[in-house]
Amino acid sequence: MQEIEVAGEINEQGQLLLLQPLNLGKHTKVRVRITLLDDEFEPEGDSKEQILADFKESLRQAEAGQTFPISELWDGIDV
Question: Which residues have CB under 8 Å from 12's CB, separation 6+?
Fold first, then answer.
């Protein structure tokens, strides 16, 4: 089983419209799970440039020793 996450919206007729095509074979069986999102959700997410910039900054911080012990990473997170 493979999982793919895509963004979509519900139109006036109550139909689910995906915001990007699925490059899957015809007649592929799928299971659809709907997660309702806040109005501020951006389906495209961060741009490739922003992701690369964030990654470079993370590497710079790691090289500078600006890290946290793994034991502290979950502090304040309720799961």
Answer: none
The full set of domain ranges for the chain reads: 8-67
Give me the mean pLDDT over the 8-33 stretch: 88
Residue with tokens 């996450």: 5
Cα torsion angle, 35, 1, 43, 51, sign = positive
Residues 6+ apart with CB under 8 A from 17: 8, 9, 10, 11
Specify the amino acid at residue 9: E
Residue corresponding to tokens 């741009």: 47
Q: Which pLDDT tens digit goes with each residue over 33-44?
A: 888 877 765 656
